[in-house]
Amino acid sequence: MQIIREKTIYQLIFLPRFFPVNCYLVEEENSLTLVDAALPYSSKGILQAADKIGKPITRILLTHAHDDHVGSLDTLKQELPNVPVYISARDARLLAGDRTLDPNEPNTPIRGGVPGKLKTRADILLQEGDRIGSLLAVAAPGHTPGLMAFLDTRNNALIAGDAFQTRGGLAVSGQLRFWFPFPAMATWNKQVALESARKLSELHPSLLAVGHGKMLKQPATAIDRAISEAAHHLEHSKMKRSNEHVAQNRP
Fold first, then answer.
1. Taking a C-beta distance cutoff of 8 angstroms, is the pair 183, 173 a contact?
2. Could you tell me if 150 and 88 are in contact, meaning their C-beta atoms sit under 8 angstroms apart?
3. What are the pLDDT digits (tens) for 197-210?
């Protein structure tokens, strides 16, 4: 495990060379907020990092319910039974293994590893605009239907989960990066992800912290470029499908 600090955020990186999976400790005056729970064996490293910082973990926030973001949740709850777990109301269903879609959601399948045997359930269901300590909850669906990003209101650092990736090159969720294709392969809806990326860019983050890859300081220009690329790819895909449909229906 590697630990990197920027502003009020400690990035904990598991499997940094092969398959980097990040979770975060956000420092408050007298406590720490854990964002995501990484891999099944990650609890020991998370707790050791908190001990090193010298403050207790008092909240566990989940950006979304994929396996590599909730992996050590059961173990952490055993060690920290009085610490509440937060997740969006929408992704609480995924946390319970329910992949069904709402009637108003795009009819594309939910992808990625969804917990099957996880015992822990959320104590608090998040809605957009909720405040958790210094963090502001921002709905950013696309990678999953209920992905939630968290903006540190003290310094505009943004923990975006898998709404973006930086491993293999900055990309909006759903846009394939050859050197690290896994977030794209696990994305539910690319168009919704693009809309969320635009929304997050309007927060003007001073720091972008994601589920896979290094933190990016002053990311505005890179985010705009990634959004432009994603929009171009999606428009190209729409045109291709439209032309194929026309060709198939010619007499």
1. yes
2. no
3. 999 999 999 999 99
- Give the residue from 155, 164, 153, 175 showing the smallest Cα distance to 231: 175
**SS3 (DSSP) at 184:** helix
**Torsion angle of alpha carbons 191, 196, 197, 200, nearest 10°?**
170
Instruction: Report pLDDT digits (tens) over 78-122.
Output: 999 999 999 999 999 999 999 999 999 999 999 999 998 899 999
List pLDDT tens digits, range 23-40.
Answer: 999 999 999 999 999 999
Q: Assess whether pLDDT exceeds 70 at residue 249.
A: no
Task: For residue 70, give both structure tokens.
Answer: 């909730």
**Per the structure block, which two tokens stand in for 234?**
């999606």
146-166 burial string, b = 16+ CB within 10 Å, else e? bbbbbbbeeeebbbbbbbbbb
What is the pLDDT of the chain when averaged over all its residues? 95
Token representation of residue 146? 């209920």
- With CA atoms as reference, report the closest residue to 193 among 169, 161, 236, 239: 161
Name the pTM for this structure: 0.94
The three-point CA angle 202-158-115 to 5° equals 115
Enter the tokens of residue 177.
């990066």
Nearest alpha-carbon partner for 60 in 111, 112, 135, 117: 135
CATH topology of domain 2-248: Metallo-beta-lactamase; Chain A (3.60.15)
